[in-house]
Amino acid sequence: MTIKVGDKVPSVKIKHMTKDGVKDITTDEIFGGKKVALFALPGAFTPTCSAKHLPGFVQNASAIKGRGVSTIACLSVNDAFVMDAWGKNQNVGDNVLMLADGNAELTKALGLEMDGSGYGMGTRSRRYSMLVDNGVVKQLNLEKPGAFEVSNAETMLKQL
Amino acid sequence: MAIKVGDRIPAAKVRHMTKDGPKEITTDELFKGKKVAVFGLPGAFTRTCSGQHLPGYVQNAEALKAKGVNAIACVSVNDTFVMDAWGKSQSVGDKVMMLADGNAELTKALGLEIDRSDVGFGLRSQRYSMIVDNGVIKQLNIEKPGAFETSGAETLLKQF
What we know:
The structure holds two protein chains of two kinds.
Chain A: E1 13-18, E2 21-26, H1 27-31, E3 35-40, H2 47-59, H3 61-65, E4 71-76, H4 80-89, E5 97-100, H5 105-109, E6 113-115, E7 123-125, E8 128-133, E9 136-142, H6 153-159
Parallel strand pairs in A: 3-4, 4-5
Antiparallel strand pairs in A: 1-2, 3-8, 6-7, 8-9
Chain B: E1 13-18, E2 21-26, H1 27-31, E3 35-41, H2 47-59, H3 61-66, E4 71-76, H4 80-89, E5 97-100, H5 105-109, E6 113-115, E7 123-125, E8 128-133, E9 136-142, H6 153-158
């Protein structure tokens, strides 16, 4: 079942790249006691995700953080090496935390997975954004398949 | 069951990036009437694969082709966008075909899949190299988990 506004983000472990290599990070560590702007997308290095979705959050990072958001996080069903390489390629720096949900555990726990096998991509995440306050979903902007209309940084900025 | 020397490559479809975007390519198109050096690895942008395995084949591409190899192909359970971005970041040019087996269709048909959920990778390919002549496997070098000893370009060069 798909998560909705008012629900708590389930407890799951995912991965991210640190200067000491790939490390586990739990949803409790990501969301506990903080306001987090999370956006998720079907795949690193894909055209819409690289040209629009991620760059929009990088460009609006200061504005979003200026409204009380502690962390901006990008989630995709890719591994930590691919997410790290993509972040570097897009010059995200410290603006966006690149989260690797390689086993799709968090994506499935949120009920936001889709079957990308038709594109040779296996199980992936739908495109969405959400605002999470201390682990509770406050806003959820879920795109229709193929669309990029409601999950961008500008929309989230208006919701803060 | 893993494939072995003397076996024919099973019919499977993978993807690769073209100037018109991702396209399907069949094992028939890849192997028929040609001698092909194939190497498979656990993931684009990972350390051994980026630091040693792929660069070795790029550096030895001319030497391999001088031994009658028509194509050198790199296979990984990653999608086309990731394989293309990785190839560009490693400056492979037209020396190595970057094959995206995103659904692990070819990797499973070869019996060379490995579960790497423990490191947040899901199902991936073992590390190996092979020489395929007109669709039939002539040499096969499968690495032990974690090793990089027998599947390098230098070893394959000696097997002609």
